[in-house]
Write a structure and sequence with these properties.
Elements (H helix, E strand, L loop, with lengths): L2 H6 L2 H23 L6 H26 L1
Helix pairs in contact: 2-3
Length: 66
């Protein structure tokens, strides 16, 4: 996920993206716990994407407050 793509989205788009990433993270965690996957690198990628989305959302909120 590219940070410039995230900054181009509005708040509703960011919330949708965050919801999809959280679902993907949950799914990957369940697959890992039941030993159905060996894609442990995907968990790290999704976790960092979630952090990127939350960071952009926080920055957008701070711009509105000023």
């Amino acid at each position: 996920m590219n940070i410039t793509d995230l900054r181009a989205k509005d708040m509703a788009g960011l919330k949708t993206e965050l919801k999809e990433l959280l679902r993907a993270q949950f799914s990957l965690r369940m697959q890992l716990s039941t030993q159905q996957t060996n894609k442990t690198h995907e968990i790290r990628r999704v976790r960092r994407d979630i952090a990127r989305v939350r960071t952009v959302m926080q920055q957008a909120n701070s711009k509105v407050g000023n």
